[in-house]
Amino acid sequence: AGHAEVLGHQVPRNRREALRHMGGFVDDPTFYGNMTARRNLRMLGRMNGEVTENRITEVLEMVGLSERGQSKVGGYSHGMRQRLGIAAALVHDPDLLILDEPSSALDPEGRSDVLRLIRELKQRGTTVFFSTHIISDVERVCDTVGIIAGGTMRLEVVGRPARFQSTW
User: C-alpha angle with apex 16: 14 to 18, nearest 5 degrees?
Assistant: First the structure.
């Protein structure tokens, strides 16, 4: 029950307008395996307006896939699909980015890259909302932390604590 508002747009009444300002990523993204990363991003771009080839190149670089942009996604590892999922969420340069477990299934270097990217996006003015069970990731990048259990906010910490301790 309730309502949601995204950047001043009521959801679901102004859903399309709200979605224009958002990018989203799910834990295990699915793509067309017989298509290249570039083609997947191009197709996703058409669903929400147009996206330029320069922007596709930019987001592939941001997630560390510029060398594999012309490769078919069917040959990608799980971690590479995770990175492509983040690129797909970024392709429209959203003001709000919602990420579900963005660093799951990534090796330590990949996790570090994703956290670096989240910090860079934050510095550019993008609001990043992400869910994770990896508390060390929270400690490294978050300004505000909320723990939700059973649909209720159990703990909210505003400001970046040096070390997060759950006290709920």
Answer: 70
Secondary structure class of 141 (helix, strand, coil)? helix
In this structure, the strands spanning 96-100 and 22-25 are parallel
Helix (H, G, I), strand (E, B) or coil at 110: helix
The whole-number pLDDT of residue 46 equals: 80
Q: Give the global pTM.
A: 0.83
Nearest alpha-carbon partner for 140 in 98, 102, 105, 167: 102
Q: For residue 51, how many C-alpha atoms fall within 13 Å in the half-sphere facing its CB?
A: 25
The whole-angstrom separation of Cα 147 and Cα 152 is 8
Alpha carbon of residue 106 to chain centroid:
14
pLDDT category of residue 119 using cuts at 50, 70 and 90: very high
pLDDT tens digits for range 85-99: 999 999 999 999 999
- Tell me what the mean pLDDT of segment 25-47 comes to: 89
Q: What burial letters (b/e) apply to 126-136, b meaning 16+ CB within 10 Å?
A: bebebebeeee
